Amino acid sequence: MFPGISYAQVQNQKARIGFIGTGGRGRSHLKNLLLRDDVKIPAICDINPVALQKAKRMMDEQGFEAPVTYGDNAYSYLNMLEKENLDGVIISTPWLWHTRMSVAAMKAGVYAGVEVSAANTLQECWDLVNTYEETGVPVMILENVCYRRDVMAVLQMVREGLFGELIHARCGYQHDLRAVKFNNGKQKHGGGVEFGENAINEASWRTEHSLYRNGDLYPTHGIGPIGNMFDINRGNLFTSLVSIATKSRGLHDYIVNHPEGGPEHPNAQLRWKLGDIVTTTISTARGESIVLTHDTNLPRPYSLGFRVQGTGGITEFDYHTRRIYIEGAGSSHRWEEMDAYLEKYDHPLWEKYGDYAEGSGHGGMDFFVDHAFVEVVKRQLPAPLDAYDAAAWSAITPLSERSVANNGAPQDFPDFTRGRWMKRENNFAPGDDY
Ligand SMILES: NC(=O)c1ccc[n+]([C@@H]2O[C@H](COP(=O)([O-])OP(=O)(O)OC[C@H]3O[C@@H](n4cnc5c(N)ncnc54)[C@H](O)[C@@H]3O)[C@@H](O)[C@H]2O)c1
User: Fold this and answer.
1) Is 259 helix (H, G, I), strand (E, B) or coil?
2) What are the two backbone dihedrals, phi and then psi, of residue 314, each rounded to the nearest 5 degrees?
3) Which residues does 155 contact at the CB level (< 8 Å), separation at least 6?
4) Would you say 133 and 274 are in contact if contact means Cβ atoms under 8 Å apart?
5) From the alpha carbon of 369, which atom of ligand 1 is closest?
6) What is the value of pTM for the model shown?
7) Whose CA is nearest to atom 40 of ligand 1?
């Protein structure tokens, strides 16, 4: 139990969970929570009345009591945290709001569940850790890819030593986001080459990061799962990274070639700072390397490009191709299909909840991240993906920006655990509970 919230507040009661941000992602969390009978949603907050209305309608349709709504201004969430006696809050807002909203929640005694990434600067990473340590109220980074079925099966393989001693991993965020970064202010995906105040949803805030920043802007979908497998902050630590970025062509070409854009469009005159491919190599305290790719501006099918490699074998897996090589198991020098391994090492959580989870979003993994959050809030347990994870994973962005800006110069990671990584145990999803 953590000291920041009184046990009586939640014991034998439904968890009282509020929402800050009810845009696309906030409503997908909401959809999952509305299927549970152990939560109440007393209040929601969004500065966009349309997003608030949509969330209210969803609650009404599921027979939930109408929530108190907040959103008169960008700081209305502070009123909600102060007045609503919440146990937990799910934060699904633009990146620049994540840390200050999480910090405010912890200070108000409210368990924070924050979307990815959790922080933008090293100072924000420290703010998450320091506020957690000062208040005793946890923050959980809601990294759903950690709960993907194949990712969890590979985690089981790692834990059972199938790959021997781990040596190397690859991962990343390789997702053609051009139709997310631009729209026409009416439809969410595609249609138009506008961003900022002329656009809606992610194009209204995410795209500016590509204009002004050059680094790995979205590291956690790749590094979260690998961090768990490599015991980061729990027996292991990221020590340093180097990053290089290619030239930037993808966003400019998209604008020029789009039917609603063209070479004379004002956005075709912009110089995008984000390199199309940013490659980061991380070193760890135990002597492994991890290569992380950020690739969001070019035409390509989606892929997180996982590879996990050790002294006993290797796997490379994605949604479409999954292969494995374990020394002594199949024919030498030949990949095996992974299906039998995925079945044998299916994580107990997926064995238990898999059928139910399938419809919950992103192939089922969203059920598990929301389930974990509700369970730890209800039971007042530490976060399975905690302030130290949020800080170490999110720190990749500012460190990679610095490295890129300095010709690939190595950047040291702070030890956000202040030495406790040596003794902390890996407690991510140990069984079939959450
Ligand atoms: N884990 C995943 O698979 C996944 C998927 C999509 C998005 N995300 C993340 O979720 C977050 C939200 O993304 P989205 O797609 O929902 O974006 P969105 O633009 O659709 O929604 C963001 C919402 O936040 C609201 N908002 C902005 N500032 C606010 C403030 N000060 N107070 C209250 N509300 C405010 C906006 O009005 C909007 O409704 C981002 O961090 C994104 O990276 C994660």
Assistant:
1) coil
2) -155, 150
3) 225, 228, 229, 347, 428, 429
4) no
5) 1
6) 0.96
7) 94
